[in-house]
Inverse folding.
């Protein structure tokens, strides 16, 4: 699933920031940047449309389309550890590594296969302004934007999170924050996902997606890949701990579980010393081919 233009600069940015230890840095190029006024405008538009007949209609359409797309994009995806979901009946926050604009479809496919719950996704407010099919889904398919706007982030966003969890649905939050394209390694997360899990007393469904190289060309820079979704042990808040202490403990456990899953999947210790194989399917200039040859989504 190669989304966007050529990735040579992105891979260079990943190498630079991995070496420097900036593991939550933005590495994509040409991403939109909002002014404070633009942030407020986009958030106000999102809140204004939420619940309207137009939104409900587009939400219904987008959910049907995305359901079919999810099945297609994950036709070769396999799932391990699904039994770890047993016993989770209420709302939960799902965490996973973030490596592709469509990696949320791996989580969606897991939810499709194992429950009747809806999956909501926390996504940057700038993604609401994306064009094309992905932009349409970002605006209408159960997305909750996160923004630097203080009023929204401090008051409205927590209410939206609580609403989803109270309704006993799932919420996907990427603790790594920034997407690193096809990057295999789990990165240390930020505390937000775990703060809300502790605050609203719901479990973390800990996931790690393994990326497997395939011997077919995808485009001029990448070979094709497939995914293995590893569902790890759920992490529950301790009722005897404060929200602060719980969130830190849950964050540490989640990272250690993802680290162990990586090491088992790839058969080597997790370090952030950069190697070309860290970016799954990456060929770059080592094996140039025509873009047309064997190209897939």
């Amino acid at each position: 699933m190669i989304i966007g233009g050529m990735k040579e600069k992105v891979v260079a940015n990943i190498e630079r920031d991995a070496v420097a230890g900036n593991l939550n840095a933005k590495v994509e190029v040409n991403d939109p940047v909002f002014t404070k006024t633009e942030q407020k405008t986009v958030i106000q538009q999102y809140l204004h449309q939420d619940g309207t007949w137009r939104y409900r209609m587009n939400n219904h359409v987008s959910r049907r389309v995305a359901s079919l797309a999810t099945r297609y994009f994950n036709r070769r995806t396999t799932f391990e550890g699904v039994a770890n979901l047993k016993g989770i009946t209420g709302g939960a926050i799902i965490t996973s590594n973030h490596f592709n604009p469509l990696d949320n479809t791996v989580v969606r496919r897991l939810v499709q296969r194992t429950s009747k719950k809806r999956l909501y996704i926390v996504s940057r407010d700038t993604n609401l302004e994306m064009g094309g099919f992905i932009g349409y889904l970002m605006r209408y398919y159960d997305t909750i934007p996160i923004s630097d706007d203080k009023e929204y982030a401090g008051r409205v966003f927590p209410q939206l999170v609580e609403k989803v969890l109270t309704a006993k649905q799932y919420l996907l939050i990427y603790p790594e924050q920034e997407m690193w394209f096809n990057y295999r390694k789990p990165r240390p997360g930020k505390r937000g996902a775990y703060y809300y899990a502790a605050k609203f007393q719901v479990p973390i469904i800990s996931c790690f997606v393994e990326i497997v190289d395939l011997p077919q060309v995808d485009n001029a820079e990448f070979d094709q890949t497939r995914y293995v979704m590893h569902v790890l042990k759920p992490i529950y808040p301790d009722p005897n701990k404060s929200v602060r202490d719980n969130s830190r403990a849950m964050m540490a456990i989640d990272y250690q579980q993802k680290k162990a899953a990586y090491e088992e999947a790839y058969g080597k210790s997790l370090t952030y010393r950069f190697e070309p194989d860290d970016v799954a399917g990456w060929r770059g200039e080592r094996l140039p081919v025509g873009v047309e040859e064997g190209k897939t989504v």
About this structure: Residues 41 and 70 are 31 Å apart (CA to CA). The first helix runs from residue 8 to 20.
